[in-house]
Amino acid sequence: MGNKDLIENATLLSENGADIIEIGVPFSDPVADGPVIMEAGQQAIKQGITIDYIFNQLEKHGDQIKCNYVLMTYYNIICHYGEQ
Length: 84
Fold this sequence. Notes:
Elements (H helix, E strand, L loop, with lengths): L5 H10 L4 E5 L10 H12 L4 H11 L6 E5 L2 H7 L3
Parallel strand pairs: 1-2
């Protein structure tokens, strides 16, 4: 989280031995996060990173990531976007 190099960074991690990668989806009001994750989320939001951006990047380029990955976010985003 925090920059637009999602695919590049995740690919490098997977090529260098990561078993699984957690991809954080930024949220505007992260009340349960610590200061580092809060700051990363704010930087990501300022750069225009949204759940739609992340889904788009993973749909287009996710096959480059050679390990499993999961999205980490607040349920508010899932409720707004829809569980499907």
